[in-house]
Amino acid sequence: MAPHGRSRSRRTIAAHSAGCRWQREQEVAGNNSVSMNQHVLVTGAAGFVGSHLCDFLLAQGARVTALDNLATGRLENIAHLAGSPGFHWVPGDVENRPLLGKLVEEADLVIHLAAAVGVDLILSRPVESLKTNLATTAAVLETAHAMQRCVFIASSSEVYGRSEALPYQENADIHLGPATTLRWGYACSKAMDELLAMAYARQYHLKVAVLRFFNVSGPRQSSLYGMVLPRFVRQALLGESLTVYGDGRQTRSFCHIADVVRAIYLLSQRDDVFGEIFNIGSEEEVTISALAHKVKQTTGSTSAIEYTPYPRDHSGDYEDFRRRRPDLRKISRLVNWKPERNLAILIHDMVAFEEGKQGKLVPAGPCG
Ligand code: UDP
C-alpha cells in the first residue's frame, strides 16, 4: 500500500489544533461505527495476535501498516495478506526512530503489540526481553505524543502477579515477587509500560489506552515460547507426552484470538477509552490438568499425560501462578463485549489448524 501523501506540516498543525484525527472521525461518525476507513499501524504485526488483528482490521475496511522485525513473528502469519488492498508490510524495528516516526505520522491509530512474549523466551533471553519491552513502548509513546496520534499499548495479566483478589479488576492492587526471580521481570516490564502510558495520558493528555490480555490462544500460535495450549495440541498430535508442570491444579482462563481482536476493534471505535486500562480475556477457568485431558479428547490422541517439574525450576527463576481470571465488567459495560467462543471451540480450532499442517509437524526444539 502506498504511503498517504499529506504534507507533514499540514498534518501536524491539524492534529495539534483538534486532537488526533482518529478521535475527530469518531466524533463525526458517532461511537460504535461499524465501518472503518482509518489507517492503523500495528507493531508486532507478524506475531500471533498481530496477524489476526491485521486480518480483522482489513476486513472492517481499515488500511493497515504492519511493522515487525520478525524476532519472534513469522512471515507465514501474514503471507496471505500480501497484495491485499490496504495492507502495507514493513519489515523493521520499532526502535528504528526515523522509520517509526514516518509510520506513526501516516497512521491515525497505533496498536503496539511488539514485545518479547512467552515465559521460555523471557527466561532464556531476559536482558533482551526486558530491554525490548521497555524500549519499544517508550519509543511508541514518545512518537505518538510527538505526532498527536491515538495509541493502544498491549499489556498482560502477568501484571496481577500473585494477587489472590480474583477475579482481577483493572484498578486492583498488584502483587509482584522479587527481582531475583527472573520471571518477575516480564510483569515488571509490562507494569512499567502501563505506568509510562498512564503518565503520558495524565501529563501530556496523550490518547492512550492499555489492553491487558489474559492467556490469548488460537490458530497460528507458536509452541516455541512456552505457551501451554499450542504445546499440548502439538504434543498430542505428535503422539508425545503432554507435559503438565507441577500438580496441574493451577488454573488459567484461555481466550480465543477471534474474540480478542474483536474486543480491540470495538475499543478502537470509542473515544472514551483513553487514559484507561482494560482486561481482555475469558472467565472460563480451567486447571492445566483438565486442559491436557480436553486436548487429548479433542485430538483422539493416545499420548500420555506426564506430570513434571517446570524444566527451569532448578534455576529459581520461575514461579507459577495458581489462578488467573479476569473481571470483564469494565469492557463489557463500555462496548458490550464478552467472548463468544468457549474453551471447547478454542481447542477445536487450534487442533483443526495444526491438523491442516500435518506432515509438516516436527518435534519442537528447546527455546533459545
Ligand atoms: N504449562 C504446562 N506445560 C507446558 C507449558 C506450560 O503445564 O508445556 C503450565 C505453566 O506452568 C502454567 C500454565 O501451563 O501453569 C500456563 O502457562 P503459559 O506459559 O501458557 O502461560 P502463563 O503462565 O503465562 O499464564
CATH top level label: Alpha Beta
The biggest beta sheet is recorded as: 7 strands, parallel
Read across the widest sheet, the strand sequence of neighbours is 3-2-1-4-5-6-11
Averaged pLDDT, please?
89
Distance between the termini: 35 Å
- How many discrete structural domains? 1
Order of helices and strands: HHEHEHEHEHHEHEEHEEEHEEHEHH
The number of distinct helices, counting runs of at least 4 residues, comes to: 13
What does this molecule look like?
By secondary structure, the chain is an alpha/beta fold. The protein has a single domain, classed as Rossmann fold (3-Layer(aba) Sandwich). 41% of the residues lie in helices and 15% in strands. It has helices at 8-18, 21-29, 48-59, 75-78, 97-106, 119-124, 126-147, 183-204, 228-238, 257-268, 288-299, 329-335, 343-356, and strands spanning 39-43, 63-68, 87-91, 109-112, 150-156, 208-213, 216-217, 242-245, 251-253, 255-256, 277-280, 285-287, 305-308. A 7-stranded parallel sheet has the order 3-2-1-4-5-6-11, with helices on both faces. Helix 3 (48-59) crosses helix 10 (257-268). The longest helix is centred in the middle third of the chain and has 22 residues, at 126-147. It is globular, with a radius of gyration of 20 Å. It starts with 7 loop residues before the first helix and ends in a 12-residue tail after the last helix. Mean pLDDT is 89; it is low at 1-20, 22-35 and 360-368. Uridine-5'-diphosphate is lined by residues 119, 215, 226-228, 231, 243-245, 250, 252, 288, 310, 320.
